[in-house]
Design a protein that fits this description.
The chain has about 200 residues and is α+β, with helices and mostly antiparallel strands. It has four helices and twelve strands, in the order αβββαββββββααβββ. Strands 3, 4, 5, 6, 7, 10, 11 and 12 form an eight-stranded antiparallel β-sheet that branches. Strands 2-1-8-9 form a four-stranded antiparallel β-sheet. Mean pLDDT is about 85; it is low at about 1-10, about 10-15 and about 20-50.
Length: about 200
Amino acid sequence: MYRVLCLLALSATMACQNNQSHEDADQIAVAAPAAALDLNATPMAAAMELHADVAWNNVEVFDFANARVNNKLPLYATRSQFQQAWGAADSLFTPDYNAICGQLDEDFQYAYTAGSLFEIGRDSVVCDQFYFQPQTRLTSGNITLHNRITWEDARKLFPMAVQQAENEGKSDVILLRESPNGDAGILLHFREGMLSSISYNLPC
C-alpha cells in the first residue's frame, strides 16, 4: 500500500513539472526577424546645380557700329571715310551671296584690311570681323577690348553673357547684344583663353 501511494505521489509531481515546462515554453519570447538590409543600396549622387537661361534682354550690349580702333579708326563708315582712315584694302573678293547673310542690303565685296574682314558696298563699309593685334584696342563707350582680355576679365565686363555661354557649355565664344532693341548679336571669340576677335552675328 505504501508503495502504491509513493508511485501516485511521484506521478502527480512529474505531471506538474511537465505542465510547468509546457507553460514556460509557451511564454518564451521569439525575437523578431531583423529588418532586411538593402545590400544593393548606393550613395545618392550629388545634385547638379542648374542655371536658368539668361533672357536676351538681360544680355549686355556692345555698340560695335560705333566702336573705334585705337580711339580713331571706325569700323563703320562711308567708303571715303574708311579709305582715309584705313587706306586701301589688302585684298578684295566677291562672296557667294546665297551662302551668307550680309549686313549691307546691296551687292558688296569682302575686303581684308589690317587683318580684319569688312563688307565694302557702293557707298558704305561695315566690319564683319575684327581681329585683335598686339597693338590694337577696340573701344565702345566705357569698354575697351584687346587681345589680353581673358575669360575671367570678360566675366567682369559682361557677367550675364558669360553666364549664358557657360550654361550652354561654351568656353570660347560669348554672345552680346549689338543694340538694346535689335536681334543682332556680337560674338567675342577666344583662343587659348584670350580674346582673339570680335564679329557681327546677324540672324538669317
